[in-house]
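cron nightly-structures :: item 1 of 1
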Amino acid sequence: QVSLQESGQGLVKPSQTLSLTCTVSGDSIENTGYFWSWIRQPPGKGLEWIGLIAYSGDTYYRPPLKSRTSISRDTSKNQFTLRLTSVTPEDTAAYYCARRVGLGGYDYWGQGTQVTVSS
């Protein structure tokens, strides 16, 4: 059974950097064919894909967020980490990590973690 668990800051001040880590169990983030994603849902809005890190280590980001986003991984801990710089209140959202299978959909999700950007 694959499980994902988000951890990190719940409250971030404007202009600071948001950092969240997703710990994966039951699968290796290096296994071929899987893509490890970050997705968020602002209050009252739909899901928004932020970016992903592939099994190969390649990364892809949502274009409007690309300049502020980086996703890295620690294969020894089977974790991948989201960093979002220069946050504003518009970055307030529930943040999720999820596994995507190839070009298909997401089959496993973390429970999500709420991040609030406020001074």
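cron nightly-structures :: done
The two ends are 40 Å apart (CA to CA).
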